[in-house]
Specification:
The chain is an alpha/beta fold. It contains 7 helices and 7 strands; from the N terminus they run βαβααβαβββααβα. The chain is 35% helix and 19% strand. α1 links the parallel β1 and β2. α1 runs parallel beside α7. The two termini are 23 Å apart.
Length: 209
């Protein structure tokens, strides 16, 4: 490199999404921690608290295309999320386990934002999808009041299937890491502090190259 050349470092751009309606919840603490940790290592973090922003989760009739490219939504809020999504290098989702599912507002976000032509392309209904997202990694942070053995043995851990098999690989995300903090309701302050420390480790994984 000549003396006149400059080394340009491209900042990693991460999208972080929170789905919990109660301010002051442990989900909020997880979200605030991961965002702060990512910014501490000079990531550009785009944050969305879906409940606080009043994201509209209800899928409209004209948004139900699953094969043909839909293009950007006519809803300006949804279109904003879709445009941002195309610029992200990594994703973070923070939400509780409710009935083995993400909260309805996040499920609606997935259905309205991750549409063909934005998140994936599909030649035929029974074909193999081609992911369109730039993001290669995703971190999912969950809270739960179900013991791990019961979640796995009795319920089959449906959230693991949702994120690691049904959703993120479809969009081109090749590395998915999910961390569950449990059981939250009867946890101690010391346990919660240790869980927040764990989040810092996960932030390091998300940004390692």
């Amino acid at each position: 490199m000549s003396p006149t050349q400059e080394l340009i470092l491209v900042r990693m751009r991460v999208g972080a999404y929170l789905a919990h309606p109660r301010p002051g919840s442990f989900n909020h603490a997880l979200f605030d921690t991961i965002v702060a940790d990512l910014r501490a290592v000079d990531c550009e973090v785009v944050t969305h608290d879906l409940y606080a922003e009043g994201f509209g989760p209800v899928l409209r009739a004209d948004e139900t295309e699953t094969v043909d490219a839909a293009g950007l939504s006519q809803d300006p809020d949804v279109a904003l999320h879709q445009r941002e999504l195309a610029t992200l290098d990594a994703l973070v989702f923070v939400h509780p386990n409710w009935w083995g599912m993400p909260p309805a507002i996040l499920a609606g976000w997935l259905q309205r934002v991750l549409v063909p032509g934005v998140a994936y392309k599909l030649g035929t209904a029974d074909g193999e999808p081609v992911g369109l997202l730039k993001a290669g990694r995703a971190l999912v942070l969950n809270t739960s009041d179900t013991p791990e053995a019961r979640e796995r043995d009795e319920f089959g851990d449906p959230l693991e299937r949702i994120w690691s098999a049904c959703v993120l690989p479809y969009t081109g995300v090749t590395e998915v890491r999910r961390v569950v903090f449990r059981t939250v309701t009867d946890s101690t302050a010391k346990e919660r502090d240790s869980w927040l420390e764990r989040v810092r480790t996960e932030a390091h994984w998300l940004t390692s190259r």
